[in-house]
Amino acid sequence: MKCDRCKNMVVYSRKYSGENLCSMCFSSSIVNKTTRTISKYNMIKSGDVVGVAVSGGKDSLSLLQVLKKISLEHNFTLKAITVDEGIPGYRDEALKIVEDFCKKIDVEHKVYPYSSLFGTTLEQTLEIRGNEKVSSCSICGILRRRAIDFGAIDLKVDVIATGHNLDDMLQTFIINLISGDTKKIGWMDPDTSENKTRKIKPFCEIYENEIVFYAFTNEIPFQSEECPHMNEGIRTEIRNFLNSLEKTHSGIKNNMYKSILKISTILKDSNNSEWRTCSKCGTECTGEICSVCNTLTSFRLN
Ligand code: SF4
Ligand code: ZN
């Protein structure tokens, strides 16, 4: 079968749109879609230094490569921020992959370990957690966001980009929905132009399986090892549920994403939480103490 755009051999059939694409046209479609998302939400301004959070997985390395491709034309520069959670046997492979990849595409790269920032690794925190019902990923996520913020200040970036794709957005929406956290749904609005630190997700309109395919066709090396805590939370079940729906009703993820955009805009406007500074560490937050200090205090680590 021939590609719809150039008549080369088809390697990818986009079920929800009916397009059949060769490897080159598929890759350009991903780059173009990312560029359109960036300009639609004014994610990056000319002259910006963009800090990309690069874990070593397929999403973040593909994002770094796509942004590198368009950085010259759109006049921005890149720096890579990697967080080392301190998960034995898991992070080492990724750190090496990111280091080599950044060297290859000439991007400045720096690693921020939890142990230096918080005086504890994720594993040590989880040991202290004992039987308390807080998932590994919630603790890790709170610390990771702070570590990335720290890296952004340290590297003097204007905006932080993460590799979250459309599937991640849908899963997060459902998690927030079933936990009753409507404030966080408001925070999902991709337009972050009014926020103090802009956090952008340039892949937020691209299916996860397309990012995987992009990484393979562009020979982007990514970490094969999965985090040992990955399947502890509900996210994997939601991911499988959405994938099974998409299989029989193609395009359903795109429809759901459009609804999330509308809902998050409404909830964002009705969110009127006052920003204060954490009484322990001075970081901007909505309560008396921030989520990081809260987490560390509850495990008696600060
Ligand atoms: Fe952290 Fe969970 Fe990701 Fe593992 S899967 S790195 S614990 S957020
Ligand atoms: Zn704090």
UniProtKB/TrEMBL annotation:
<feature type="domain" description="tRNA(Ile)-lysidine/2-thiocytidine synthase N-terminal">
    <location>
        <begin position="51"/>
        <end position="240"/>
    </location>
</feature>
<feature type="binding site">
    <location>
        <position position="278"/>
    </location>
    <ligand>
        <name>Zn(2+) 2</name>
    </ligand>
</feature>
<keyword id="KW-0479">Metal-binding</keyword>
<dbReference type="GO" id="GO:0000049">
    <property type="term" value="F:tRNA binding"/>
</dbReference>
<keyword id="KW-0408">Iron</keyword>
<dbReference type="GO" id="GO:0002143">
    <property type="term" value="P:tRNA wobble position uridine thiolation"/>
</dbReference>
<feature type="binding site">
    <location>
        <position position="163"/>
    </location>
    <ligand>
        <name>ATP</name>
    </ligand>
</feature>
<dbReference type="GO" id="GO:0016740">
    <property type="term" value="F:transferase activity"/>
</dbReference>
<dbReference type="GO" id="GO:0051539">
    <property type="term" value="F:4 iron, 4 sulfur cluster binding"/>
</dbReference>
<dbReference type="GO" id="GO:0005524">
    <property type="term" value="F:ATP binding"/>
</dbReference>
<keyword id="KW-0411">Iron-sulfur</keyword>
<dbReference type="InterPro" id="IPR054306">
    <property type="entry name" value="TtuA-like_LIM_N"/>
</dbReference>
<keyword id="KW-0547">Nucleotide-binding</keyword>
<dbReference type="Pfam" id="PF01171">
    <property type="entry name" value="ATP_bind_3"/>
</dbReference>
<keyword id="KW-0808">Transferase</keyword>
<feature type="domain" description="2-thiouridine synthetase TtuA-like N-terminal LIM">
    <location>
        <begin position="2"/>
        <end position="26"/>
    </location>
</feature>
<dbReference type="GO" id="GO:0046872">
    <property type="term" value="F:metal ion binding"/>
</dbReference>
<feature type="binding site">
    <location>
        <position position="6"/>
    </location>
    <ligand>
        <name>Zn(2+) 1</name>
    </ligand>
</feature>
<dbReference type="GO" id="GO:0002144">
    <property type="term" value="C:cytosolic tRNA wobble base thiouridylase complex"/>
</dbReference>
<feature type="binding site">
    <location>
        <begin position="53"/>
        <end position="55"/>
    </location>
    <ligand>
        <name>ATP</name>
    </ligand>
</feature>
<feature type="binding site">
    <location>
        <position position="22"/>
    </location>
    <ligand>
        <name>Zn(2+) 1</name>
    </ligand>
</feature>
<keyword id="KW-0460">Magnesium</keyword>
<feature type="binding site">
    <location>
        <position position="168"/>
    </location>
    <ligand>
        <name>ATP</name>
    </ligand>
</feature>
<feature type="binding site">
    <location>
        <position position="25"/>
    </location>
    <ligand>
        <name>Zn(2+) 1</name>
    </ligand>
</feature>
<feature type="binding site">
    <location>
        <position position="3"/>
    </location>
    <ligand>
        <name>Zn(2+) 1</name>
    </ligand>
</feature>
<feature type="binding site">
    <location>
        <position position="290"/>
    </location>
    <ligand>
        <name>Zn(2+) 2</name>
    </ligand>
</feature>
<dbReference type="Pfam" id="PF22082">
    <property type="entry name" value="TtuA_LIM_N"/>
</dbReference>
<protein>
    <submittedName>
        <fullName>Uncharacterized protein</fullName>
    </submittedName>
</protein>
<feature type="binding site">
    <location>
        <position position="281"/>
    </location>
    <ligand>
        <name>Zn(2+) 2</name>
    </ligand>
</feature>
<feature type="binding site">
    <location>
        <position position="59"/>
    </location>
    <ligand>
        <name>ATP</name>
    </ligand>
</feature>
<keyword id="KW-0004">4Fe-4S</keyword>
<feature type="binding site">
    <location>
        <position position="83"/>
    </location>
    <ligand>
        <name>ATP</name>
    </ligand>
</feature>
<keyword id="KW-0862">Zinc</keyword>
<dbReference type="InterPro" id="IPR014729">
    <property type="entry name" value="Rossmann-like_a/b/a_fold"/>
</dbReference>
<dbReference type="InterPro" id="IPR011063">
    <property type="entry name" value="TilS/TtcA_N"/>
</dbReference>
<dbReference type="InterPro" id="IPR035107">
    <property type="entry name" value="tRNA_thiolation_TtcA_Ctu1"/>
</dbReference>
<keyword id="KW-0067">ATP-binding</keyword>
<dbReference type="InterPro" id="IPR000541">
    <property type="entry name" value="Ncs6/Tuc1/Ctu1"/>
</dbReference>
<feature type="binding site">
    <location>
        <position position="293"/>
    </location>
    <ligand>
        <name>Zn(2+) 2</name>
    </ligand>
</feature>
